[in-house]
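cron nightly-structures :: item 1 of 1
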Amino acid sequence: MQATLRSEEAMAVDAVRAIDVIAEVVRDARPGETPARLCAAAVKLLPVVGASVSLRSSGMSLRLAANNSMASYLAELQATLGDGPWLCAYESGAPVLACDLTAGRNMHRWPLFARQATAVGVQAVYSMPLGSDDGLTVGTLDLYRDTPGELTEDELRRAQLLAAVMTLALTTLPREESGSGEEAWLGGLATEHDEVYQAIGMLMAQLGVDADEASARLRARAFAQGRTALEVAHDVVSHRERLDGD
């Protein structure tokens, strides 16, 4: 009984410390800065070297924020591949802990992503779903580690706490007005991805396919060229690239 109480007290102390770190990192942040600030908090609280947050929309994962260029690249890579720990976390609504991308089950589960991730020094990825209590998942918080390893129980709780705060930030923060006073701050974060939506629409009309097929064609072209889906979408919208129907 005493051991259980001590354990609960330790968990409570750890949670308070994590909340203190999160509060300090996001203090005075504008709504649109909050996701990136929370990614920075993840690096302070967990044994990871990077973090990114992405939302799922129109069959694509849209990166909203990352704490560094490596995390940004891996978020875009997963979006381009249409595969990776993020997709499994999004579809299952549960954390996906890829503890070793250098060998074993995780490497074989996502071979393309694992190869690219380890090439830039990432050997483990922990993907936390962002969602509500009713089971609706809107995206993921992805955490990148430079060595293989599992999260401890305390670390997993901190990661889930960060995911809960991130979900709250993405769904309840007030609007940050633009010049017209009409655009929500969350919409502003994804402005650069508007071209992805445009490109998918153009491909649907051009190829006579649905949105899922159009996004798959876009990702396939990007992967074949060693580029991101965002880069190819820009060229499609600019009429510098055309995807054939064959």
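cron nightly-structures :: done
The beta strands are 50-57, 60-66, 96-98, 124-131, 137-145.
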